[in-house]
Amino acid sequence: MSVDDKGKKELPPLKVAIAGLGTVGVGVLRVLTEQADLISERAGRPIQVVAVSARNAQADRGVDLAPFRWFDDATVMAREADADVVVELIGGAEGVARKVCETALDSGRHVVTANKALLAHHVISLAEKAEVAGLGLFYEAAVAGGIPIIKALREGLAANRVRSVKGILNGTCNYILTTMRETGREFSDVLIEAQELGYAEADPSFDIDGVDAAHKIALLASLAFGEQVDFDSIVIQGIRHVTALDITFATELGYRVKLIAHTERFDGCVETRVEPVLVPVSAPLSHVEGVYNAVLVEGDLVGTSLYVGRGAGAGPTASSVVADLIDIARGRFTPVFGVPSGDLSASVLCENSAPDRGERYYVRLMVTDRPGVFADIAAALRDEAVSMESIIQHGRNPGETVALVMVLHDTPEDAVTRAVRRIGSLHEIVEPPRVMRIGRF
Amino acid sequence: MSVDDKGKKELPPLKVAIAGLGTVGVGVLRVLTEQADLISERAGRPIQVVAVSARNAQADRGVDLAPFRWFDDATVMAREADADVVVELIGGAEGVARKVCETALDSGRHVVTANKALLAHHVISLAEKAEVAGLGLFYEAAVAGGIPIIKALREGLAANRVRSVKGILNGTCNYILTTMRETGREFSDVLIEAQELGYAEADPSFDIDGVDAAHKIALLASLAFGEQVDFDSIVIQGIRHVTALDITFATELGYRVKLIAHTERFDGCVETRVEPVLVPVSAPLSHVEGVYNAVLVEGDLVGTSLYVGRGAGAGPTASSVVADLIDIARGRFTPVFGVPSGDLSASVLCENSAPDRGERYYVRLMVTDRPGVFADIAAALRDEAVSMESIIQHGRNPGETVALVMVLHDTPEDAVTRAVRRIGSLHEIVEPPRVMRIGRF
């Protein structure tokens, strides 16, 4: 008997309703239409859009919406459309997006979403709804668009106890930091350009203040550790205060500045934070530039593995949404966090950031160049038992301001904080000291 | 109703027989035993080893085999053990390994294998057997141990038409090339060290001549393009001829030498090859060092994405084998190539390596330093319409041998071949010219 002799059972199409027809929604629609043959081959059956919903029925989106039932109200669509799956591409942690996902699950439909804000705040209740109803809740597109990192963590690395996940998860920040390094320009200048190019929003704070990256690392942490990570407990610092001068010094020291979202499990506690970090140029992560994202996973079996790809845009995001639809079409289901959500334990926050672990820090001071000032700085470090690994000062400028950069090593964070506070209060220190962690990758 | 109220249906354990108890087999056994709780949570039910087989029943492997039924003959085990899955970790393209996999499928058992040689030669017939019987054939561990690249290509990137896959797929070669660069030592010297450290086999040719990487890229090509790639059509060149001098020049020019396995689809044909390539230091791939592997996938939706991790060893390989077992336990099945094997078309080889595409090449000549020799070289290039981008010669040494390195650009391969052949026949050229492609990453 050969494969051809075997009667193939024709499966019915998987019927899909799409809520939200922005760039990504239209991208998904295009892929499902234009690559229909490829997709139905890989999905084992056709994937057919049956209904769509968006705020404006009249907008010209460059695609023919006539074949699909139109809904003015996405929540009504989630309840009433003849669909197996609702794809939520509206965005936002509350409001319509949340209602659409809840209604879809309550109405017996699988959900595929790209909405990291919604998930960061409400994934547990959504996961419970999905599990009770025996439905899928897929969100590959919510983190690092073109990188199948949810699948990698949830399935590919499922045999591992994950120790840490570190990522470049916000393309806007990475574009700005890369351009600052390449051109020597200041943050505010590059931000304006990024806004003109469409790489940054008119209100950029969600990206540049690290909130978006925090949403994503919260999800990855829950997935990696099988624990509920409280979003509000994440220490978040964005890139507004990174200066061209810091990037120049980092380069001189052999590092690149990246906004790193980081979650790590220690004995009995988890530490999660988002902050600019110096990444050594010897690490592949440092060469992830521009709008690319990257995720570094450390597992007990695989050791370190790294995933790099575009973080956003219609193509990469549609790729992930459609991959989720193919999983559903093939019947490849996985609990939201890889394990039943009832098995998730509440994450215990580390009291003190890495209390027993010596780390390395970059500290930049703007100092009035006057005899004796360095003795005062050195005394503050000595008194807090902070070790200095190296120091850079270029040229002298008696009586004027000069930049002084120190690399501190083998130092607990609280000792650095105390020493830097004391140094910052010296009369000769004319700006608040800038401190960045130096990452181990 | 909450999740807890829902009666959980207890699934029976997934029963596994392991053929081959070398480093990897023992690794798998350890993981399944020591991480049993974690794995049964992620798999939705216990994964239980019921039988094992190896050549020597008496060997001390540091694990207790008493709980498992022992088979002297792995093929008998594949037929008779009370197992749902047979894990084949014996190795080799023919013989016992092949028999075990065929027998398992014929006996209604799923197969998980790490055997790239077997798959490179026989995956089509095995896939047909599996499909006819409705069984799974999983092989995540066969390519790039710690990187879930099979899952990424087969599921995560399933919405994409893949244009190319390029990889560092052999850890032995990458270790040798990295060490050569770091220490300035010659190939043969570093190979001996790698053998002493256990990073290279006593007979290293399978690795260093590129055959192992070719096995892996053949599999990835079939998976990426949905085509049968004929293993014997792959152009294979290993790293024996890479010298310390070449690596020094590559470094000077801003490149690292990597053994790259490459498959690319052009209009109507596929080109697949394994060869040492110069990778620009600006590419993250160039920073994949030592025993790490990497795979770069270019898809029409995602653009470029990169996957990096350890290529071999008990931990990474066991991670992939157990991930496959978890897929089976959860009922997450996928056709061997993502599409039914009957839908695979035979791959059409490109007649001529990238005939219309200009590429860049590194050419090193050992030249007797004599007036007029450069004019002869330049004439050969001119006559074949080959453009030179740059040239390096350090110092002069009249009458003696000097190294001369040229970067050729925008040049079809056959023109380079003709020009280099002509140059190589000049009286002043005292060694065969060394040519390496400069990759675009």
Description:
Two copies of one chain form a homodimer. With 441 residues, chain A is α/β, with parallel strands linked by helices. Chain A folds into three domains: 132 residues, NAD(P)-binding Rossmann-like Domain (Rossmann fold); 163 residues, Dihydrodipicolinate Reductase, domain 2, CATH 3.30.360.10; 80 residues, ACT domain (Alpha-Beta Plaits). The first copy, chain A, has 14 helices and 18 strands. In chain A, strands 7, 9, 10, 11, 12, 13, 15, 16, 17 and 18 form a ten-stranded mixed sheet that branches. In chain A, strands 3-2-1-4-5-6 form a six-stranded parallel sheet, with helices on both faces. In chain A, strands 8-14 form a two-stranded parallel ribbon. In chain A, strand 4, helix 4 and strand 5 form a beta-alpha-beta unit. The longest helix of chain A has 18 residues. The radius of gyration of chain A is 25 Å and the shape is elongated. The N terminus of chain A is likely disordered. Chains A and B meet through helix 2, helix 5, helix 6, strand 13 and helix 12 of A and helix 2, helix 5, helix 6, strand 13 and helix 12 of B. Strand 13 of chain A pairs antiparallel with strand 13 of chain B, so a sheet runs across the interface.
